[in-house]
Give the backbone structure.
Amino acid sequence: SSASLQILASMPSRTIGRNLGAIISQYCNRTAQLRRRSSRPPLQQLCRAARPSLRQYDLETDPTRATLEEKRRLLVKELLSLSPSQCSHMLLTMPLSLAEKRILRRQLSRQRGPVRQRAHHRAPFSPCRWSRVCIGLVCTEAGRAPVQAPAPLLSPFSSPQGCRGLWYRLLSLLRAAQPGHYALKQIGGRFGSSVLSYFLFLKTLLMLNFFSFLILLVFVVVLQAVYPTATVSSQPFTGLELLTGAGCFTHSLLYYGYYSNVTLNDPCTSSPEGSLCPLAAPLLPYNMPLAYLFSVGVSFLVTCILLVYSMSCSFRESVGSSTGDLAVKVFCAWDFKVIQRRSVKLQCENTCTQLKELLGERRSRSRPRSRCQCLGRCLVVLLAWLLALGSLSGCELAVHYFSEHMHMGSGKQQQEAILLLLPLVVSLLNALMPRLFSLLAVWEKHDSPVTQVYVAIIRNLMLKMVILIRLCYHWLSRSVVCSTEECWETCVGQDLYRFMVMDFIFTLLDTLFGELIWRLILEKRLKTKQRPEFDIARNVLELIYGQTLTWLGVFFAPLLPAVQMLKLLLLFYIKKTSLMQNCQSPSKPWQASHMSTVFITLLCFPSFLGAAAFLSYTIWSVQPSETCGPFRGLETIYQSGKRWVLVLEKSNPNITWFAWVYQHLLENTCLLFFMSVALIAVIYFNIQVVRGRWRVICLLQEQIANEGKDKAFLIQKLQSVYEQRHR
């Protein structure tokens, strides 16, 4: 009614938007105050009030207030006295329309033109200023307004604000130079957050492998390359080594068997037995066995810390309710700093895709079922799970048969091509079984695409776990993998290398036939515009499977993280190109708010912890080879630490405290037990804190809803009072 509209129009928050001259006058006064200060504060300390109050200035009650044009002219005059960065920030914080801001910017540019021309005649551009302007143009991010050039007479380093602005531009340049920076925005806008989560997960894996590779490269690989060992005669390169990892790669830095078991910087290492060494021993010997063991352990520790940190960050971002997301996307999603046509189109696609995801979630929630439909659905789901479990049992038996009978009777006369048989069978199962699971999902007819993806992830994860557990048992039974004369650790490393290469080849074939050829068949033969959809569950589980192979093989092949990094980089660009050219957006859009958390959790608990358990069992219980590797001649790999502590104590008596620390802290099982209990307690309390925050968020949302009801109630009461007065 008119009474309610009158009440709403008299609210303090609505009065500021009616008087444009009041806003301009207020910011004119604020600009004058800022100009009169002797020392200008940094840009971050400026006031960010977007809706200033008019009660401080009494502009509404001033009878001698100037017209709008005069106020605008005064504001432009005051803005000219500020630095370009402060002027730009002041214009951004003004609660004015874009049309009014364009008018102000146009007047500023007109009055700055003659000043710039006079300045150009006075002093030409210096090389520093030219470099700063070029950096400002290059570093402008896609979709944001370009940074304005500084005053012509000022050097870029004449003030802290100039140095800080140059530093921010360099940071934005580094961010824009990241691989796939614009591609991720394009994927998110066209295909939604569900497909984008796959590529973000791939970038996370790339970061984890980079840190592992850096640690092993610095402390193991480079030092062993500086002090090379006496190798056997190298075999000629035939090209098949790229697939099998054998041949000339066998006695190289790629595998465990190449690394020595001596102190690298000891000058007496190469002296013949029985002869005296004239040189003194080094003060701090670099023991290769211990460096090898500790580098692998530190790489696993750093990976664990990064995984836990990534999991906590993604879990914190995913906590929250999507109750008001639709209203936020409708009214607050647009970024008004976007000015380029390409970025505007990309943001339009992104906003439309997010709205489709939110509406799809609401539509899937509001579909009730009858009891007969629920009973029939339960029977279908039960039969589908029985078929899935039966197929998993068949896969385990197939892998067991090929792993037991592949090497029997071949010995040294086996050809390198036969070594690819087991990886070929495993990769074939990993490629065909997800297709069967997709057919089962079509039969089950899940309403929610989130539920369908979770079920597919569980089934594919069970398939990968069954195969990897069988392979780990196959690798630890050394008599099956290698003969007694060969280094079994190198054979395991070669096996893992072959599995990674074969997995990459099958991924390329799946991209070629499953996406490109299928798209051509749909368009050319069937004459339909429909394209294949991107299978998120299968592709993510392929990444987790490849990363698990990398963690299993870090000890047996220290350069395996480098191979995985190359594989991930190629996969990123191949999958991105195939996605843009061959795939369509999901037919049922859904929001992947918790999907990144699920991916990181699956990577941490089944994958990383399983690889850590396999490595721990190898170090503590399995006897290493007697003819090669850094741990030759030892009963277990763990004994190398004890030997090194004794050698270190004899060579330098001043660091006997380290031997005490090693004996009482590192070898103390009680301390390890208490550390494990403390870690579990910290994780438990962190989970409880997150649950408490979730409850607080729910209470605050309920309170916000009640506040809205209170406002409606007060408006109704005020409306009744106005109607009574009117009568």
